[in-house]
Amino acid sequence: MELSESVQKGFQMLADPRSFDSNAFTLLLRAAFQSLLDAQADEAVLDLKHIDPVVLKHCHAAAATYILEAGKHRADKSTLSTYLEDCKFDRERIELFCTEYQNNKNSLEILLGSIGRSLPHITDVSWRLEYQIKTNQLHRMYRPAYLVTLSVQNTDSPSYPEISFSCSMEQLQDLVGKLKDASKSLERATQL
Amino acid sequence: MLLELSEEHKEHLAFLPQVDSAGKLNVSSDTVQHGVEGLTYLLTESSKLMISELDFQDSVFVLGFSEELNKLLLQLYLDNRKEIRTILSELAPSLPSYHNLEWRLDVQLASRSLRQQIKPAVTIKLHLNQNGDHNTKVLQTDPATLLHLVQQLEQALEEMKTNHCRRVVRNIK
Question: What tens digit of pLDDT does each residue of A6-26 get?
Fold first, then answer.
């Protein structure tokens, strides 16, 4: 994990009981986690008004940066403790940080895992079965046909395009057969 | 159902019996063109309406051709009917149609924002045809959605076997 001097300085300030008493420390820590994981995180702000806003901002940024880096590299407790010790955190504050981190670890990993580019993702399918009788070019058709629509989610654009196509019964059987092969192969892979 | 041939059509087709078996035609190009158009119309309309052999014979009868020519026309109709209908079906408004599906199993191990992952995914290449153009779309899905897709589409296939659908297919012909 590579962390800048700014982060280290922020943590050193955070470690100092003269700048942050126990209560303030806990509040800032919780606020840092909440600001990353939760959309609404403004409860703690009110009780930290007595601290210089510049210091507050620096420490908050340092904490948030560190949390994200630790999450990204899946840091374990010993890694966290070592770094915090280097920043002159006392035992109690290290324990507090580790506990908060442990509580929020899953949400953090889900958040980090969801960031990134990927191919358009299929989210749903809808289908329609119709019986074709005639067109203006061709009478007496009398054949069933399926219309399949795949709902797709794109990471690039917020739009939700759909892919629609028609197929005969044989073609749908082919499609389903291939998808079943894929899912069987998936099942086998999970048993390896 | 009899095919209705207008006076104009009958005129155009009247040229047919004059065609010399050697192939040389001593008539104007207009007449030839009309003849061809008339023949085309006869065959495509008959194929479109899917008229029976008997109806076709009766329709052609009004043209007053020889027995031999009538038989020839009937044979022409029967031989080419299926292909003509296939071509006509492509003229209808249509959506892209399914051609093929390729799939691949992937596992994401890491990304810029998170290391040490095990995230399975299925990558799919869907081949579609539209108006002769071949189109491919590369998509992805997760295992849970894949199972959902299979389940939904199997239900779609099951529908064809229900009494309701069987009755409709049996009775509307």
Answer: 888 888 888 888 888 888 888
- Find chain A residues with C-beta within 8 A of B3's C-beta: none
Q: Which of residues 4-43 of B touch A (CB under 8 A)?
A: none
Candidates B114, B150, B173; nearest CB to A183: B150
Q: Using CB atoms within 10 Å of the CB of residue A5, give its burial: 0 to 12 exposed, 13 to 18 middle, 19+ buried.
A: exposed
Q: How far apart are CA A137 and CA A53, in angstroms?
A: 76
CA–CA separation, A36 vs A13, rounded Å?
Answer: 21
Q: Looking at this protein, which amino acid is placed at residue B33?
A: Q
Cβ-based neighbour number of residue A20 at 10 Å: 22
Give A60 to chain B, closest Cα distance, Å: 20
List the single best residue of B98, B134, B168 to mutate versus A (max A Cβ within 10 A): B98
- For B72-108, the pLDDT digits (tens) are 889 989 999 999 988 888 777 778 999 999 999 999 9
User: H/E element holding B10?
Assistant: helix B7-13
CB-closest option in A113, A119, A127 to B138 = A119
ipTM given for this complex: 0.78
pTM exceeding 0.80: no
Please, are residues A72 and A110 in contact by the beta-carbon 8 Å criterion? no
Supply B56's token pair: 């076709």
Q: Is B110 on the interface with A (CB under 8 A)?
A: no
- Tell me the C-alpha distance between A174 and A180, whole Å: 10
Q: What band does B25 get if pLDDT is binned at 50, 70 and 90?
A: low
Contact by Cβ (8 Å): B128, B136: yes
